[in-house]
Amino acid sequence: MFNAVISSSPTPLFLFGMKRAESLIGSPVYSQGWFRRDIMPWMDLIQLEAVDGTVVNSYHRFWTFLLGGSKISLGIFLGLFLLDLLLNN
Q1: Model pTM?
Q2: Using an 8 Å Cβ cutoff, are 57 and 12 in contact?
Q3: CB within 10 Å: which end of the chain, N or C, has fewer?
Q4: pLDDT for 11
């Protein structure tokens, strides 16, 4: 048994923590995802299934894609906005 940091967006983790995490503490679970080795091991969790049948899906790939796309769009917007400011002054 090991402890791993589960990576995802803050909003879904907060909602998961509010609704379902307490019932899973101390329960044996099966996890599906990618285990990452770095300075600190962590896991991109896809699905967590408790022995009692409780299933938690993570959708980390969706949130990562959405967050990454938003950051790229913001970077392009800010870059064009700042370029326009520099050229017009």
Answers
A1: 0.54
A2: no
A3: N
A4: 55
